[in-house]
């Protein structure tokens, strides 16, 4: 069974989150304050070291101000059609 931690879809998610944060003009520390987490949490999410679930994606979208469906479309486009979980 293929792992998804370093998949193209996961890498696309991480990059999309970084891009959204930067577009919003937020530093990792500023985002962390909004999320009530440490800056290291944001760094781990953005690097792919820590995975997020759907609820966390919604929380991130609210804190940063992006449409979670746009991020999901990016991930869907990057995910190989035959990728197994």
From TrEMBL:
InterPro entries: Cro/C1-type_HTH (IPR001387), Lambda_DNA-bd_dom_sf (IPR010982). Residues 17-72 form the HTH cro/C1-type domain. It comes from Actibacterium atlanticum. It holds the Pfam family HTH_3. This is XRE family transcriptional regulator. One of its GO terms (molecular function) is DNA binding. Signal peptide: none annotated.
